[in-house]
């Protein structure tokens, strides 16, 4: 048999008697890291010495769905709701999970699989599930593992909708939670109860830019036999890998820096194969599916995430230093600044400081409104992770559903502005901020 990839992984077909001998089908038995190395070797021209990819950038670019008979260089879009069966036996085997292959795009599609393959390799996880939005990922990553009477420990500084899941939705089914302050790590162990099933954190947090020690918390979770779930949206796989630090689950809003251009929605839950099996079951039967088109966009976007994040981080670093010198600014939060309370931890845990900068304007809400209304270049939006720099006022937008007391507990003051630093020239960004403060 020739050493070329068959199309079973793409079209859900098998070669029947030759199924286990087919190189393409044999890949399903390998781990994800071994699988990508095998694919890389098989796709090399015979005249060259195959070099398995070892570096982030190469993995992000060269991880692709198997080539079809058309020999395309760029992976095509698989815009189909369903897939056909060769015969009755194959249909039975696919539904019985005895044979790999695609059945229905609600839970299986080549574009989605490629996107997840990349993320798993970049994050260092065994398996994953792609979702329609980041919040679908957050919900699934919690709901798949808790039942009535269970308890969740969470860092207090969370995205507003994640806060609503914990405080408004899960209590409907008798699931309780306890919040912990990120700057008081001893509270995590104090908050654990006999019925605690999960610790959920966001680091860096949104919008307070708090940092939590993932490796330390992973050890605590292991000691108490509970799951550690880390929202890695703001660091991205390029800057931080929670699973390699001991986290059991890693969640992403791919809408943000993974897409990077404000075009599509998407999310992902990554982790050990046995854990993702639970997430996949819930996703398959509740339907928060990522569309193949969005998966195709997000997989393509991962090809450039390394170069984008380097530029984002450099601009953010320069902007944070600039803001510290402004007389109307009373506080700047950015992990790479020596003034950040968890600066040493951030330096140890993250590759660079990230693309988010938060600062507090003197004068509260009125000063914030005046600043936002006077911006000329910077976008005013609730989103982040775009090529374009975006300013947000959490008090009146993303975290407006929290009470004032809840906002203050996580460092969201009336004058706090969150900047998602884009890829424009840094001098243009600084110029617009300076004139908006006049």
* Major sheet: 7 strands, mixed
The average pLDDT value, as a whole number, equals 90
Q: In which order are the strands of the major sheet placed?
A: 1-7-6-5-4-2-3
Strand % is 5-15%
Helix and strand content put the structural class at: alpha/beta
Architecture (CATH level 2) name of the largest domain: 3-Layer(aba) Sandwich
Question: How would you name the CATH homologous superfamily of the largest domain?
Answer: Type I PLP-dependent aspartate aminotransferase-like (Major domain)
How helix-rich are the residues, as a percent range? 25-40%
| CATH T-level topology of the largest domain | Aspartate Aminotransferase, domain 2
CATH C-level category of the largest domain: Alpha Beta
Q: Which descriptor suits the 3D outline?
A: globular
Question: What number of domains?
Answer: 3
**Stretches where pLDDT falls below 50 for ≥5 residues?**
1-29, 40-49
User: How far do the termini sit from each other?
Assistant: 73 Å
Q: If helices are DSSP runs of H or I spanning 4 or more residues, what is the number of helices?
A: 18
